[in-house]
Write a structure and sequence with these properties.
This protein has seven helices and eight strands; from the N terminus they run αββαββαααββαββα. By secondary structure, it is an alpha+beta fold. A four-stranded antiparallel β-sheet has the order 1-2-4-3. Strands 5-6-8-7 form a four-stranded antiparallel β-sheet.
Length: 190
């Protein structure tokens, strides 16, 4: 369950929630952009593997809700609580920290695939013989919760990815070696 669980944890912390259903059952829901069928399939597979239960899809405006019912979701994701995530403390339990330490790339991948993006940044430089235009890949992670942003930064540091704040809610990864590391296990959304 280790790596798959950590990936699902990243998706949950990014664009997921847990809601109470009848008979002391909980519903884990994660939302993905409907354009990214491979991400929807990866989330569905991870949810089924971790929860061992059937996973369903609900079409929403511009996105797909991937969901599953289980009595165990709140045990697996103890960060669940009343209200929105950015208004409460988000802290991993010791056993979750251990799994993240073993599989940091899985958490980063889940967080980027839910609340991040990969873009080409275009730059124009004036030179003697004209203007040179070139592009380079960079990643952004955006989340309202300062705890989740810090978890992202700390996990990136575990694998040598340098990131920096870019505004109030954004984390930027633009250094060449850091982007190359992310390219190895994330790449473009599809």
């Amino acid at each position: 369950m280790g790596e798959t669980y950590v990936y699902l944890l990243g998706l949950y912390l990014g664009d997921g929630c847990i809601s109470r259903a009848p008979k002391n059952v909980w519903r884990l829901r994660i939302f993905q952009d409907q354009r990214y069928t491979n991400l929807i399939a990866a989330c569905t597979s991870a949810m089924a593997e971790v929860g061992g239960v059937r996973v369903g899809h609900v079409q929403r405006i511009g996105c797909i809700e991937i969901g599953s019912y289980s009595k165990h979701w709140t045990c697996l994701f103890p960060q669940h609580g009343e209200g929105v995530k950015h208004e409460r403390v988000i802290q991993l339990k010791a056993w979750q920290n251990h799994l993240v330490w073993l599989h940091p790339q899985a958490l980063i991948r889940g967080l980027i695939q839910s609340d991040g993006c990969r873009v080409v940044n275009w730059v124009k430089r004036p030179l003697r013989d004209g203007i040179k235009k070139y592009g380079y890949i960079r990643y952004f992670f955006t989340n309202t919760s300062s705890d989740i942003r810090q978890l992202f930064v700390d996990t990136c540091a575990l694998i040598g990815v340098e990131c920096r704040p870019d505004g109030e809610k954004n984390i930027s990864i633009a250094r060449r070696h850091s982007v190359q590391l992310l390219e190895e296990f994330i790449g473009p959304k599809s």
